[in-house]
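Example record

One chain of 211 residues, shown exactly as stored in the release files.
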Amino acid sequence: MPSSADLAAWVGATGTWAALAAAVYGARAAFHMIRVERDRDREQQRQKQADQASSVAVWVGRPFGRNRSNSMATSVALRSEDFFPDIYLVNSSRLPVYELKIFVWVDFGDRPIHWQDRVILPPTPEPVIASAYVDAAPRAAQIMEHVVGVSVAFRDAEGKHWQRTRNGSLRRVDTGDAMQRTGVADGDGFVQPQDLDDVDPRDLRRSPGAD
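Predicted structure tokens for this chain:
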């Protein structure tokens, strides 16, 4: 039969192990809470970084006539350019964005065309037109006939670089990656754009679906 001393030692050991188990459990719980808080802080930081970027958008619209009016007009009053799509740009944040580049996608190629640069885009109370054909290169009016999508790249007020893809997705750009730094985001990757002056005039005469 165990002596009282043995029993006391056993009880003491049991208490020590229980205390150790409780300490381990407490440490694991504390570590889990720290990790949860850290992940939450990171997500909040990512959300904060994306807040302004998510307020910048670009899209293609096709107005009826350059005067954006739905009123009837005679065929004499309209030119072919009146039916070209417009590129709309908006910055609904409270701060400007910088180094903005606009790229258009066309139906005769799988590479975007570097369309326009803007040093700064201030907050816009409503969308602005970024594609007036009269302000672009001479061949821009011809290109507008073929535009099927648009992308935009910019730097936010905190110095982060972003791109809005042609399907509307927002992507953070790793400027340390040469392909991301110089390319245009599309799907899961980046493609290199072509300059407006490098567009083959023969492509501009091709109709959609032509060989």
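Notes: The chain has four helices and eleven strands.
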